[in-house]
Design brief:
Largest sheet: none
Radius of gyration: 18 Å
Helix content: over 70%
Number of strands: 0
Number of helices: 9
Strand content: under 5%
Distance between the termini: 30 Å
Structural class: mainly alpha
Shape: elongated
Mean pLDDT: 89
């Protein structure tokens, strides 16, 4: 049997923690749950990450990076409306095919708000940096149009909310969004939760 390197083990922790945090949030997820899912002991987990906060920050950063990469790949070589619709379609596919990505995003925003309210700013600083990278990944293909970027990101947050609440793709609440931004796939966040 081939042993995993520490980096491979860290990657498996990030994947497992994504699932656990997406479902339970920062405060509702224990490091014991994460260690169990990975198949390691808690002491080994703490050799890879100094604590739960470090694990959550790594997962939150990965979540934002993955979303940015989806935007960048979708908009490569495109500009304006073409880029907008390609990014919207790619994002709609991402959150319908991998609902834990959406759930994790929502958990990140909750954790940031709770941490900021308690005077803890590390979560917020990292998430704001990652979110600005998302903004830039959208802003450039949209030709540097601030209003267009704002509208795209605002629509994205509406999509997150509607999908997070489990509105099915055919529901009238989606009618105001352009077709490329609408969740087209039958698998909603709610049905994915029911599978677990």
């Amino acid at each position: 049997m081939v042993r995993m390197s520490a980096e491979e083990r860290r990657e498996s922790v990030i994947r497992a923690a994504t699932s656990e945090f997406a479902r339970g949030g920062y405060y509702g997820t224990s490091t014991e749950d994460i260690a169990k899912r990975v198949g390691v002991s808690q002491p080994y987990l703490f050799r890879l990450f100094p604590g739960k906060k470090a694990i959550f920050l790594a997962v939150a950063e990965r979540c934002l990076q993955d979303t940015r990469k989806v935007f960048e790949a979708a908009s490569e070589g495109l500009h304006g409306e073409e880029a907008l619709h390609a990014m919207a379609d790619a994002y709609a596919r991402l959150i319908s095919e991998q609902p834990e990505k959406l759930q994790m995003q929502l958990q990140v925003y909750v954790a940031v708000a709770a941490a900021e309210a308690a005077g803890e700013h590390e979560f917020g600083e990292m998430v704001r940096r990652g979110w600005l990278e998302l903004w830039d990944a959208v802003h450039l293909p949209l030709g540097g149009d601030v209003a267009g970027t704002t509208a795209f990101m605002a629509s994205g947050m509406l999509i997150n909310t509607l999908a997070g609440m489990g509105f099915p793709p055919e529901h009238r609440v989606w009618d105001g969004l352009y077709d490329s931004a609408r969740i087209k796939h039958a698998r909603s966040v709610r049905s994915a939760e029911e599978d677990t």
